[in-house]
Automatic annotation (TrEMBL):
It comes from the Eukaryota. This is PLP-dependent transferase. Its cofactor is pyridoxal 5'-phosphate. Transmembrane segments: none annotated.
């Protein structure tokens, strides 16, 4: 194709060419054990380690355009050296492939190529974000707040970070101008929470030492008695308790903190209550599982990420607020060159309301919050340019509906239970996060979310004094070499297990079947026996590693 064509003609040509490549990439992941045999990211990684970036295709001398077909060769190279998340064997992270609707939504955003910071350049996208944010928030706050809503942020971590910054700027409005000098803020979170809470404290200028890690129980849930004890001690030591983060679905074990009890404590001390539901928050769509989120309506803010459990393309994360007006109150600056006011607004100004009064202002329509409806969405954030990620969720919600999302979550939970129960009767497996007990069968304990953490012990070792790290790492690497599965391992969790690294497998792909799970368990036996054969002195290796713990 010649290079003097109009851009839309070039687009038409390239879409036709690339369609076959992309469909083939997705199609290669179909089937019980299918992965694209051409995809060898592990071998590519080894070559990079050995040879450096010389393995990368030449980007040209920078002076002349490349031929379109030459550019498509780069696409082939990228696809062939990428992990195929469409594969059933992708069990590594807290997300899976997207779907046809997701791909189309990303394509629409690319063709629009606009910002969603001000209404004038993204009118319909602004309305969509406000609409979908409201509908999403209603799942948690319906009947408890008429002003709830949400905005998208670039990932769950940034949603969490923004929630802490908003809590500080709203509850202590003078800190927006004067900083933290007048306060010694304290942040509370469980010892199993996501690291973004600590990073948020660093970014807000509190320092990581202002984050108090609360002890968890044997199920990985925050101990409320320890939380209140820590709050009291912080007050005695001159801290200003600002923010409590509760986790709905921890990264490793998938545990859910007792939200209702934590909410009561936060209300008692006038502390901002945030729920990090980036992973487990979308249980809200399941009739069976949403009870795990009981008490979330007490939260001032909630992080939820459709790109994890619901298959929306990355990234798509929402920060939901009990009162959406606080986004602007906490973040707004006068920037008339960008944010053209439609009408006047009411702010608290420099009038200092007490922390309790501000938290109570949700129940009123004045004091402490701006009353106008905000259509310049960036005013509610700390940034400016922003992608309209909400469109991806909006189109998925329209296509699948709440019922479809619920069915997806329920199927994933069913598959997780099937795997957990299957390995539960196999003495070579030892599950570490089977905390939930079935009402029908009290012996059938299961993990609380969609990931299963376990040790694998070939030949029924049953030795709890050994360090499992050598065998776990060897087997994970071997699984990768088979180019059949991508699975992960986790280091020992503080206050939980001290027998070395363990497997953590996430069951979230909506196409997973019981037949696939049967094959996975069988392959664990194959790879485990291979380890024993290749490491006849495995017990000495384990004992030596145990001494290093």
């Amino acid at each position: 194709m010649t290079k003097d064509k109009a851009e839309y003609e070039i687009l038409d040509y390239l879409l036709i060419k690339i369609r076959e490549k992309l469909v083939r990439f997705a199609q290669s992941a179909n089937g019980v054990n299918a992965v694209d045999g051409a995809n060898e990211p592990l071998k590519f990684y080894n070559r990079i380690v050995e040879n450096g970036l010389i393995e990368m295709p030449d980007i040209g001398n920078g002076y002349h355009k490349q031929d379109y077909d030459k550019m498509l060769e780069h696409v082939d190279f990228i696809l062939n050296n990428s992990v195929n998340t469409w594969s059933l064997g992708f069990l590594d992270k807290l997300y899976s492939s997207t779907n046809a609707i997701g791909v189309i939504s990303d394509l629409v955003l690319s063709i629009l190529n606009t910002n969603s910071h001000v209404f004038t350049v993204s009118p319909i996208l602004t309305v969509i974000e406000k609409k979908i944010g409201y509908e999403y928030s209603k799942l948690f706050y319906d009947g408890y707040s008429e002003n709830s809503g949400g905005l998208t942020f670039s990932g769950g971590s940034w949603s969490n970070i923004s929630s802490l910054q908003i809590a500080r700027s709203y509850l202590y409005c003078d800190s927006k101008k004067r900083g933290n000098g007048n306060y010694k803020f304290a942040v509370f979170t469980s010892s199993h929470s996501h690291y973004s809470v600590e990073k948020a404290a660093m970014l807000c200028g509190f320092g990581s030492e202002s984050v108090f890690k609360i002890e968890v129980n044997s199920r990985g849930e925050m101990k409320c008695s320890k939380l209140e004890e820590s709050i009291k001690k912080a007050i005695e030591n001159g801290y200003t308790p600002l923010y409590v983060n509760a986790t709905a679905g921890t990264t490793v074990f998938g545990s859910f903190d007792p939200l209702e009890e934590i909410g009561v404590i936060c209300e008692k001390y006038g502390i901002w209550f945030h729920v990090d539901g980036s992973w487990g928050g979308n249980f809200i769509f399941s009739k069976e599982l949403k009870n795990k989120l009981k008490g979330s309506h007490l939260a001032n803010s909630i992080t939820v990420s459709p790109h994890k459990m619901l298959g929306v393309p990355t990234t798509c994360s929402f920060l939901l607020m009990k009162d959406k007006r606080i986004f602007v109150t906490a973040n707004s600056l006068d920037a008339p060159y960008l944010f053209h006011k439609i009408k006047g607004s009411v702010e608290s100004g420099d009038r200092r309301l007490s922390q309790r009064e501000l938290l109570e202002s949700y129940k009123r329509k004045d004091d402490g919050v701006r009353s106008e409806e905000n259509f310049n969405l960036a005013e509610g954030t700390m940034g400016c340019g922003r992608r309209a990620d909400s469109l991806k969720f909006y189109l998925s919600w329209n296509y699948y509906g709440k019922v479809g999302f619920g069915e997806r979550v329920d199927h994933a939970y069913f598959i997780m239970k099937y795997f957990s129960e299957k390995i539960g009767v196999n003495k070579r497996f030892r599950t570490l996060n089977s905390f939930d007990v079935s009402r029908a069968n009290e012996q059938a304990a299961r993990p609380p979310c969609l990931q299963v953490c376990f040790y694998y012990e070939p030949y029924e070792i049953g030795d709890k004094t050994m360090n499992h790290t050598p065998i776990t790492r060897w087997m994970v690497y071997k699984f990768h070499q088979l180019n059949k599965y991508l699975i992960d391992f986790s280091p020992p969790v503080k206050d939980a297990h001290n027998e070395g690294e363990f497997f953590r497998i996430v069951f979230i792909n909506p196409n997973l079947t019981t037949e696939f799970i049967d094959q996975l368990v069988e392959d664990f036996g194959v790879v485990g026996r291979a380890y024993m054969e290749n490491n006849p002195n495995w017990r000495n290796i384990a004992n030596t590693a145990q001494k290093a713990l």
